[in-house]
Each structure stands twice: as C-alpha cells, then as structure tokens.
Design brief:
Layout (H helix, E strand, L loop, with lengths): L4 H4 L2 H33 L2 H8 L2 H28 L2 H36 L4 H16 L1 H16 L4 H24 L3 H26 L15 H33 L3 H13 L1 H23 L3 H37 L3 H14 L3 H16 L4 H21 L7 H25 L1 H9 L8
Length: about 450
C-alpha cells in the first residue's frame, strides 16, 4: 500500500486535496441535470418537461435512501483502510458491490410494478402520466448502473481518492450530453431518449468505476469471483448506513412539506422558492464536499487508532467549513437580488426571494456544526444518534413550525424563519452531544480489531 497522507500529512492540506475534486464534481452533477432539463424543455416540449419533472422527488427519495445506506460501506472501508486491515477491507469492498447489485435488482422489480400507481398517487395529470411512467420505467431499468457508480465512488473516496470519481463523473456528464442530443434531436425519441441517455451514461460510469477497482493493486482490489455477502461486513454496513438512509428519506418528506407550505402562497412565491433553490445550491455543494472530506479523514484516522488526530481533524475541518460557508453567506446576503435576476426578471419574485434569502442566509453558519460534527461522528461508526438528532431537530421542528407558528403569521418570511430556528437548535444539540464525548467512547469500545489484523 502506498504511503497514506491522510494518516500522516498536513491535516488542512489533506482535507482541501480531498474537498476540491468533490466540489467540482458537484458542479458537473448540476450541469448534468441542467442539460437534461434544457434539452427536454427546449426540444421536446412543456408536457415532456413537466413529465420528467414529476419524477424528481421519487427518484431523489429512492437514490438518496440507497446512498445513505451505502455511506455505511464508506465508513467501514475507510476505517479498515486506515487500520491497514487487508482481509476485512477486501470483505467490505466485495460485500458493498454485492449489496449494490442485489439492491438494484430489487428496486428494478419493485419500480416496474409501482411506477404508475405512484405517479397516480401524486396526482400527475393524465396528459403527462404516460410520459412520466415511461421515464420512471426506463430509469428503473438502468438503476443498477447508478447504484454501482455510487457505491464504487464511495469506495474510492473512502481510501482517499476523490480525483478518479471526478474524472469519471466528467466523462459521464459528456456522454449524457452527447446522447441527449443524438436521441432527442436526431432520433426524436423524446422522453424515452432523455431517459435512455441517462441510464447509458450511468452504465458507462459504473463500468469505469469497476475497471478502477479491478485494476488497482491496493488492498481495495476487486475480484469478480469474490463478490458476495460477508455477514459481519453486511451487518456493519446496514448498522451505520440504514439510519443515514432513513434520515435522507425523512429529509425528503420534510422538504415536500416545505414545498406544500410555499404552494399555499402566490405563484410568484412558488417561482421565488424555485429560484432560491438555484442560488443556495452552491452553499449545499460546498457543505456536502466538506462533510464527505471530514468523514473520510476521521474514518481513516479512527481506523488507525490515531484518536488525537481525529479530534484535531474535526476542529480544523469544522473551522475550514465555517470559513467557507461564512464567505458564501455574506456574498448571498449582499448580492441575492443580482443572483435572483439571473433566473427571473419578475420584480415581485426577486423581492420575495430576496426577503427569504436574507432571513436564512445568516443562519447557514449554524448548519456547519450539524454538517461537520455529524460527519465526524458517522466517520467513527456512530450513525443512529446523529440521525435521531437531525430528524427531530430539523425535520420534526420544521414541520412543527409549519403547523403551529405559520398559521399565526402566514407569510413567506415566517416560513424562512423555520430554517433559522431548526438550524440553531440542532447545532446546539450537536455541539453538546459531541463535546460530552460518550459517543466517542462507545465507538472505541466497538472497535473490535487491531490494525493489520482480521
């Protein structure tokens, strides 16, 4: 195994080296989604755009749930890699790949039979129902490629490699753009063409990820004949990953509740909400990149039993995350009318969006503690407690606010305050929970292997 700089190098440099490829990859992911939207909207039509749009929440919920569970594999793989435990590392890698294959098959079978009932349950209009079901069906047919890509990316990031997932994502993005144009503009396959382009590009990314794992000579080498479930590793993946997957699902549900609350205002308010999502997506991309970077750093050093370096990494990573988000918050607060004008020329939409952003943008910095500390705690192998705190502190409080506080003062600004309140309270809980340190003792007691031993 080559020298592992995450275990020995400058902490802030290692976090940044890991951070930037993930951040750039997030931008390409946004470009990927944007091109799909542009091609459908400009070259197929409004009905097709609406049909594809109606599938977004369902796809996000399903894929988000799987990615949450897959994060359990990333955590244990990073710990085994940091510990230099080759046998357990190999078992974890092959279990993770087997999990993605079996999960993909299950989602495919269930998806084929539930696509139409779910779309009907969501009150999708009859004129776009068939296209919505078609898109979902084709997407389900290629779901295995998506899951293999996500689990493979998690494996590479767990061992400190964030560059190759970026290169693969760039290739996937370019393939998707080319196929979108060919299938829609040349072959006139409309919604089917966009969906088919998506699953083919994901298949390409899955193949490239698998090739990376097959060709490596490091301890995370993949052997096709070894792909199967190993009981202990599967149990650990589910123990750590399932709470994260459930958290993702509940987050999606709370977001749907927020959308429903916004829908109760004017059309301008709904448009403002959509534009706000585009503006603050930059903040969430930065937050996510820092979270993954901190979690990987903590996981590897915890696996190597470098506990003082773990705590030092949490402090430095949190400070870096705070500085980055503070800068973004100031920029968004000062220039949000300009950013909103990029997406709309409607003055009322800009006014509403500006008021909303200027209420919750200053509170972004509180979410830093939620993001960094939960990533750190999960990196050490504790996932249930962060899920409970997040679900009740953010999802639960936010829905409670909509039910109790919003009717007292039914305005967009009151909706915006739900973010500030939930972030501040949840951040305080996470800081107290982290500093008490009992979770860290439990993680160390659970660490039942010696570095370099199975």
């Amino acid at each position: 195994m080559k020298k592992n700089e995450i275990l020995t190098g400058s902490i802030w440099k290692q976090i940044l080296v890991f951070f930037f490829p993930i951040l750039i990859g997030s931008f390409f992911q946004q470009l990927y989604n944007m091109v799909d939207t542009i091609v459908v909207g400009q070259y197929v039509g409004t009905h097709a755009l609406a049909a594809v749009g109606t599938t977004g929440s369902v796809i996000s919920l399903i894929v988000g749930f799987f990615i949450g569970i897959a994060s359990g594999a990333t955590v244990i793989i990073s710990q085994y890699y940091g510990a230099g435990d080759e046998e357990m590392m190999s078992r974890a890698v092959h279990t993770a790949i087997a999990f993605s294959l079996v999960s993909g098959l299950c989602i495919m079978v269930i998806g084929f039979s539930t696509a139409r009932p779910i779309m009907k349950a969501m009150n999708v209009p009859e004129e776009i129902l068939d296209d919505s079901v078609l898109y979902m069906t084709v997407y389900y047919a290629g779901i295995i490629g998506n899951l293999i890509y996500n689990i493979g990316t998690g494996i590479l990031r767990a061992v400190g490699d964030s560059k190759r997932p970026l290169y693969i994502l760039i290739v996937c993005c370019l393939v998707n753009i080319v196929l979108d144009l060919v299938f829609v503009l040349v072959l006139h396959w409309a919604v089917f063409g966009v969906a088919f382009a998506t699953i083919l590009s994901q298949l390409v990314s899955a193949i490239l990820i698998i090739l990376c794992l097959l060709k490596t000579k490091d301890m995370y080498h993949l052997s096709i004949r070894k792909i199967r479930f190993y009981r202990i590793e599967l149990k650990e993946i589910i123990r750590i990953g399932l709470p994260t997957g459930m958290e993702s699902v509940l987050y999606s549900i709370s977001n749907m509740a927020m959308q429903a609350a916004i829908n109760g205002f004017s059309t301008a308010a709904i448009a403002a909400w959509s534009a706000i999502g585009k503006v603050d997506s930059v903040m969430w991309m930065v937050m996510q990149a820092f979270g993954i970077s901190i979690s990987t750093f903590v996981g590897q050093n915890f696996g190597a039993r470098q506990y003082s370096r773990v705590k030092q990494g949490v402090r430095i990573g949190t400070a870096m995350n705070f500085a980055g988000i503070l800068a973004i918050s100031i920029i968004i607060y000062a220039f949000c009318p300009f950013f909103l004008h990029i997406f709309t020329s409607d003055s009322e939409v800009v006014r509403l969006g500006t008021g909303f952003l200027r209420i919750f943008a200053p509170a972004y910095v509180f979410y830093v503690f939620i993001n960094a500390l939960s990533a750190s705690i999960r990196g050490c192998g504790e996932s249930v407690q962060p899920m409970i705190v997040t679900v009740f502190g953010i999802c639960g409080l936010r829905i409670l606010w909509l039910v109790v506080a919003l009717p007292l003062h039914h305005t967009m600004n009151m909706v915006a305050l739900s973010y500030d309140v939930s972030w501040v309270i949840t951040a305080i809980i996470f800081i107290i929970y982290y500093l008490r340190g009992r979770w860290f003792t439990r993680c160390k007691n659970r660490q039942g292997f010696e570095p370099g031993q199975a």
